[in-house]
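Before relying on records like the one below, remember that each one covers exactly one chain. Contacts with other chains, cofactors or solvent are not represented anywhere in the record.
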Amino acid sequence: MASFLIDSLTLTNWPRPIVVNGPDIFLGRPASLERWRLNDDGMFAKLSTTDTKEPVYSLRFFGDLAALLTQSRIRLYDATDRGLFKGAGDSPMACNASLDLANADGSLARGLYVPLSDYGVMFVPAAAGQ
């Protein structure tokens, strides 16, 4: 039998969304999005931080488009370079509607389409490298 020591990250702040995308681990913090990777030694290495100015409640990738839900906005990022997110769009959240990134669809070229339950679909335009 073999055992291995693997590193850990503190998850003390709420909200704390975690998304694993390929070898990268994205962790939402109160005012940023951090990118980590688990190296061959079993230790986490912080690779980059993107300032979001608000807590990240949810994150989803659509190819090279990253969509974040913050407290009051949907923020889009050009995620072509996972180490250097560039702003690609921004929109206030629709009032009285539950945003559903899990069923959203989009791309850097098309923008993001977010279902709003009974209220239709919200469109957030994207422009690379805003």
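The longest strand covers residues 44-51.
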